[in-house]
Amino acid sequence: EEGSLALNTVTIMIGPRFASSGDEAEPFGHILTGIRYDKISDYDASNTAFGFEVGAGVDIKAGSSTFVRLGVDFQMAFDEGENLKVLRLTGGLAF
What we know:
The chain has 95 residues and is mainly beta. It contains no helices and six strands. Strands 1, 2, 3, 4, 5 and 6 form a six-stranded antiparallel sheet that branches. The protein is elongated and about 50 Å long. The termini are far apart.
């Protein structure tokens, strides 16, 4: 499509994950720090910024080694006095 742009983002984060064990559900949380790399397609423009992410969720037992994972994350990246905030809701399977 003419005139459209695509933003490709790679986020690399590392940090501790805290979990509580239960019979049917296992709540967890994490505090991460790392970098966010953005590249705009069809242009020679890219950017790398430092940031952090905090999140929490729950793994709900769905089988002997399968869980339904529900979570929420808040991410903030800092670049040249500006910041980018992202709120992400997630759901899926964990093995």
